[in-house]
């Protein structure tokens, strides 16, 4: 569990003081993955660096597994650092060392015996699916493989918390998938609490239980990803759900429909059965005018624009709203566009 309370951090800037973190409060439950997203300069890396004890905050507290990190000094600080694994931004492996050699590095620094080191390195390379690359040098590995080695290295000292700063930037979607699979295993199999800083909503879609949106050093949105889907005005929902072409279906079937609305459905039951059931119950014609299906983690999620035609169209929409569908009325006309 990571708990951050009222964290502030300033830097001197050319135009005055930069408030990189301006009262950030956030908690990440044990064995979950939390994504930190937000525009460039929002303070994401500074937050990760403060939690990793690489940066000293100006004020506020950071608690990991019940220990307040901000007040630690000397040996206690070094011990606490070991309980926090860090996957830094960019290429961070030593070029002159093999994959196994890079993973072994923190174990050597901690004085672990050669035999115990070898056993641990084998375990870690197996965890990240790179047993066959133990003797390869970073230049002989793909970008995704290098990132997986960096994850294995970060886990060497069995940390309870892992911080990953942009672990998939500059990777193609397929390679991104292999890195995300590894991070998901780290949470599921080792029970590690993961905080991942990212620009990439695919990371949030694939592995995050929670997400926090930072802007100008403040958390402007935070919660479970699936819960935020139903929050009106959520900043991130639009980028997680299937797109709807705003002009699609406004002519033709939509123009004929008695009611046009956007529905968000979460979970197997909702996605599969709810719309046909509403149509049957209220004897209305239901047309899908746009949108589609996706997955957030293991959960199917849909966003559709629907058109309902029939005397009881309004009642059918109200029934959907009462049965786990989040409803937003769609305009039936866009100003300036003839129906
Ligand atoms: N060491 C530093 N010295 C001076 N200013 C800094 C320092 N580190 C960060 N900043 C400033 O603090 C603010 C937050 O930076 P930070 O790198 O945390 O943002 P970010 O959200 O991670 O951005 P990006 O997505 O571009 O990496 C920015 O205005 C940045 O210029």
TrEMBL record:
The gene is metN. This is Methionine import ATP-binding protein MetN. Keywords: Amino-acid transport, ATP-binding, Cell membrane, Hydrolase, Membrane, Nucleotide-binding, Translocase, Transport. Its EC number is 3.6.3.-. PANTHER family: AMINO ACID IMPORT ATP-BINDING PROTEIN (PTHR43166), METHIONINE IMPORT ATP-BINDING PROTEIN METN (PTHR43166:SF30). The keyword Metal-binding does not apply. PROSITE patterns: ABC_TRANSPORTER_1, ABC_TRANSPORTER_2. It comes from the Bacteria. GO terms for molecular function: ATP binding; ATP hydrolysis activity. GO terms for biological process: amino acid transport.
């Amino acid at each position: 569990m990571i708990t951050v309370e009222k964290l502030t951090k300033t830097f001197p800037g050319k135009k005055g003081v930069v408030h990189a973190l301006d009262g950030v409060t956030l908690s990440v439950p044990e064995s979950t993955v939390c994504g930190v997203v937000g525009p460039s300069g929002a303070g994401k890396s500074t937050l990760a660096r403060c939690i990793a004890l690489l940066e000293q905050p100006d004020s506020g507290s950071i608690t990991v597994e019940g220990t307040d990190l901000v007040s630690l000094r000397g040996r206690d600080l070094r011990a606490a650092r070991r309980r926090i694994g860090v996957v830094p931004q960019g290429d961070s492996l030593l070029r002159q060392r093999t994959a196994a050699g890079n993973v072994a590095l923190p174990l050597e620094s901690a004085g672990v015996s050669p035999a115990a080191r070898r056993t641990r390195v084998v375990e870690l390379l197996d965890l990240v699916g790179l047993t066959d690359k133990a003797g390869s040098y970073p230049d002989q590995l793909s970008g995704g493989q290098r990132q997986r080695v960096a994850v294995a290295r970060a886990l060497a000292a069995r940390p309870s918390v892992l911080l990953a700063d942009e672990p998939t930037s500059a990777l193609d979607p397929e390679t991104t998938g292999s890195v995300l699979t590894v991070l998901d295993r780290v949470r599921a199999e080792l029970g590690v609490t993961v905080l991942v800083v990212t620009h990439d909503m695919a990371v949030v879609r694939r592995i995050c239980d929670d997400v926090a949106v930072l802007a100008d050093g403040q958390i402007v949105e935070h919660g479970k990803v699936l819960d935020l889907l139903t929050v009106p005005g959520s900043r991130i929902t639009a980028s997680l759900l299937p797109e709807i072409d705003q002009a699609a279906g406004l002519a033709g079937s939509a123009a004929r429909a008695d009611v046009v609305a956007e529905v968000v459905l979460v979970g197997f039951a909702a996605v599969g059965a709810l719309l046909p059931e509403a149509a049957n119950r209220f004897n209305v014609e239901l047309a899908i005018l746009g949108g589609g299906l996706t997955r957030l983690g293991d959960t199917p999620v849909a966003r559709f624009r629907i058109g309902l035609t029939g005397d009881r169209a309004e009642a059918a929409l109200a029934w959907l709203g009462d049965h786990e569908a989040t409803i937003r009325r769609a305009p039936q006309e866009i100003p300036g566009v003839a129906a």
